[in-house]
Amino acid sequence: MASDPNCIFCKIAAGAIPSRKVHEDDEILAFHDIAPWAPVHFLLIPKEHIASLANAEPRHEALLGRMMALAPKLALEQGCEPYPAGGFRVMVNTGAHGGQEVHHLHLHVMGGPRPWAKG
Ligand code: AMP
């Protein structure tokens, strides 16, 4: 599985940097964002190093689908209220214009009662 020794999320996926885990399986890790925008704010990452959504390849389609399908399940487990009165936001910042700071593909999942700190 591709890994980048200089990537902070690869280090988190490898357990070399601690995180507050929400979910882990063979391919995917979810952990709380260190600087949450919302009462619930966690990140879903592939364990494989994919620099951004723009770098995803056809072979990643199933993995991306699994990440999207996990988001609502984990959001409810983490305290987001059910759709439609509650719900959550999924955000994938991609590249400089997309506001991406960490260059390892990640889904932000944010929810909980408003107002939020940002967004
Ligand atoms: P983005 O701008 O989409 O690349 O967002 C990167 C996110 O990663 C930000 O919301 C950061 O707060 C979060 N982040 C950075 N380092 C860590 C870390 N060590 N543990 C958890 N979240 C982190």
Report what the structure shows.
With 119 residues, this protein is an alpha+beta fold. The chain has a single domain (8-111), classed as HIT family, subunit A, CATH 3.30.428. The protein contains 2 helices and 5 strands; from the N terminus they run αβββαββ. A 5-stranded antiparallel sheet has the order 1-2-3-5-4, covered by helices on one side. Residues 8, 17, 19, 31, 33-35, 93, 99-102 line the site of adenosine monophosphate.
Stretches where pLDDT falls below 50 for ≥5 residues? none
Overall mean pLDDT? 98
Structural class: alpha+beta
- Strand % is 15-25%
Question: What's the CATH H-level superfamily name?
Answer: HIT-like
The CATH architecture is 2-Layer Sandwich
User: Which ligands occur here?
Assistant: adenosine monophosphate
Number of DSSP helical runs: 2
- Using DSSP, what is the number of strands? 5
List keywords for this structure.
2 helices; 119 residues; 21% strand; globular; 19% helix; alpha+beta; 5-stranded antiparallel sheet; binds adenosine monophosphate; HIT family, subunit A
Brief sketch in words of this structure:
The protein has 119 residues and is α+β, with helices and mostly antiparallel strands. Helix content is 19%, strand content 21%.
Task: Record the SSE blueprint.
Blueprint: H1 8-13, E1 21-24, E2 28-32, E3 40-46, H2 61-77, E4 88-91, E5 107-111
Antiparallel strand pairs: 1-2, 2-3, 3-5, 4-5
Adenosine monophosphate is lined by residues 8, 17, 19, 31, 33-35, 93, 99-102.
